[in-house]
UniProtKB/TrEMBL annotation:
GO terms for cellular component: endoplasmic reticulum membrane. Its cofactor is heme. Gene3D superfamilies: Cytochrome P450 (1.10.630.10). It is found in: Endoplasmic reticulum membrane; Membrane; Microsome membrane. One of its GO terms (molecular function) is iron ion binding. Pfam families: p450. Belongs to the cytochrome P450 family. The gene is CYP4X1. It comes from Callithrix jacchus (White-tufted-ear marmoset). PROSITE patterns: CYTOCHROME_P450. Keywords: Endoplasmic reticulum, Heme, Iron, Membrane, Metal-binding, Microsome, Monooxygenase, Oxidoreductase, Transmembrane, Transmembrane helix. This is Cytochrome P450 family 4 subfamily X member 1. It is a single-pass membrane protein.
């Protein structure tokens, strides 16, 4: 058992950790990990401790158990994503996971490549207009976010929203950004753990307002589909599809007693997949572009690879995506350096013993810091350096299987990771075919670390339009 004395001794990083949380200062976290490469605790008020881990053996121990998700995280996030797959536990989670897995079948994912290509080209057309007269600096994150929203709406809900060109979708995106910040700050503010105090606070008021925006957005998706099913009038592109989309699966799902998902379950799953399916992918695409802008030699090598495989990129196939080995290594290295999901957490339902003999009591919240694991100098040589060759086959074979976990691992791993990888490859390949990206030194980048690691004040990159091949 880790003794109170040990926890007190460990408590020295608490100050630094609060700075990391309050200022989104990821470097502070790195300093702590250099000192404590396995684990360290953080007290939130007098009763609640979060036990951070960043060691592959520790991660393996936690991910091979079936402890529930952290009750605080789930409780505070539930107005945002309800009790969908991310938040569920136990038999209900198992049932939903089994029912929803077919939505990510290989044949369905293959059909998405064309949809994704179309959405990326819409974004590139916008960039071309911005750059038509001269090379220029563009805040790319907002464009990428809307592009990713467009893709998830079309792929999982078969809904044509034109959100990339129609600014009525901006309030939803802005609400997500702000709500995530409020929830994250609530998590680390002991007083705001109380529902009454939080509801009466200015953040609590704001939270409720923003929540209505999010609820309404999801509800419209569900009601539109229900209407079209009732009237037989196809309001979306359901008639063109040869496959069941995610919404078809959720609306027709039956449990072992033959009962359909309740309205609350449907709402939870739709808001979960809407958020999980676009927010983290948009952040990841932006981080890959950022890393390639910082490392022009790797950008050039990816572009050569993509040109050799895709030509002018007029159409993209599944096999071609599989051939992009260098670009995939750059994507993987970006996931390591800047993981879009920087941490995940579990509440221990029973005591836990790590392989080195350290034990934790039941009830402790364990936070697996994916950022910490990926930046751990005891695991990675020169962890701050962008080096895609870490992911070559020879170099990967040597690695601990739990050293690199951008999509987590085990039974609760990311259900959408294949979807995400396809979207990332299509987006990065097409962007590199049409533009060279370089950093804008006048606009240094800062992190916003609120469940998803995003650029805090946007991401400004210099875009240079390339001649057509
Ligand atoms: C680069 C993009 C993505 C990253 C980095 C990512 C990362 C993760 C991680 C780390 C988890 C584990 C969370 C935990 O244990 O608390 C997770 C779970 C999940 N992800 Fe993703 N994800 C991405 C894209 C997607 C996409 C595109 C979808 C859906 C279309 C999706 C849906 C989910 C769901 C539903 C879960 C919960 C799975 C379960 O508990 O059974 N994610 N993701």
């Amino acid at each position: 058992m880790i003794s109170t004395a040990a926890i007190l001794e460990f408590s020295s990083p608490a100050q630094q950790l609060f700075q990391f949380i309050q200022d989104d200062n990821m470097e502070k976290l790195e300093e702590i990990i250099e000192k404590y490469p396995r684990a360290f605790p953080l007290w939130i008020g007098p009763f609640q401790a979060f036990f951070y881990i960043c060691d592959p053996d520790y991660a393996k121990t936690v991910l091979n158990r079936t402890d529930p998700k952290s009750q605080y995280v789930q409780k505070f996030l539930s107005p945002l994503i309800g009790k969908g797959l991310v938040a569920l536990d136990g038999p209900k989670w198992f049932q939903h996971r089994r029912l929803l897995t077919p939505a990510f079948h290989f044949n369905i994912l293959k059909a998405y490549i064309e949809v994704m290509t179309h959405s990326v080209k819409t974004m590139l057309d916008k960039w071309e207009k911005v750059c038509s007269t001269r090379d220029t600096t563009v805040e790319v994150y907002k464009h990428i976010n809307l592009m990713s929203l467009d893709i998830i709406m079309k792929c999982t809900f078969s809904k044509e929203t034109n959100c990339q060109t129609n600014s009525t979708h901006d309030p939803y995106e802005k609400a997500i950004f702000e709500v995530s910040r409020i929830v994250f700050q609530r998590l680390y503010s002991f007083l705001h753990h109380s529902d009454i105090i939080f509801k009466l606070s200015p953040q609590g008021h704001r939270f409720q307002k923003l929540n209505q925006v999010l609820y309404q957005y999801t509800d419209t998706i569900i009601q539109d589909r229900k209407k079209s099913l009732q009237t037989g009038v196809k309001q979306d592109n359901t008639q063109k599809r040869k496959y069941q989309d995610f919404l078809d699966i959720v609306l027709s799902a039956k449990d072992e007693n033959g009962s359909s998902f309740s309205d609350t379950d449907v709402h939870s799953e739709v808001s979960t997949f809407l958020l999980a399916g676009h927010d983290s992918v948009a952040a990841s695409i932006s981080w890959v572009l950022y890393c390639l802008a910082q490392n022009p030699e790797h950008q050039e090598r990816c572009r050569e690879e993509v040109r050799g495989i895709l030509g002018d990129g007029s159409s993209i196939t599944w096999d071609q995506l599989g051939e992009m080995s260098y670009t995939t290594m750059c994507i993987n290295e970006t996931f390591r350096l800047i993981p879009a999901v920087p941490s995940i957490s579990r509440d221990l339902s029973k005591p836990l013993t790590f392989p080195d003999g350290c034990t934790l009591p039941a009830g402790i919240t364990v936070v697996l810091s994916i950022w910490g694991l990926h930046h751990n100098p005891a695991v990675w040589k020169n962890p701050k350096v962008f080096d895609p060759l870490r992911f070559s086959k020879e170099n990967s074979d040597q690695r601990h299987p739990y050293a690199y976990l951008p999509f987590s691992a085990g039974s609760r791993n990311c259900i959408g990771q294949q979807f995400a990888m396809i979207e990332l490859k299509v987006a990065i390949a097409l962007i590199l075919l049409h533009f060279r990206v370089t950093p804008d030194p006048t606009r240094p980048l800062t992190f916003s670390n609120h469940f998803i690691l995003k650029p805090k004040n946007g991401m400004y990159l210099h875009l240079e339009k390339l001649p057509e091949c």
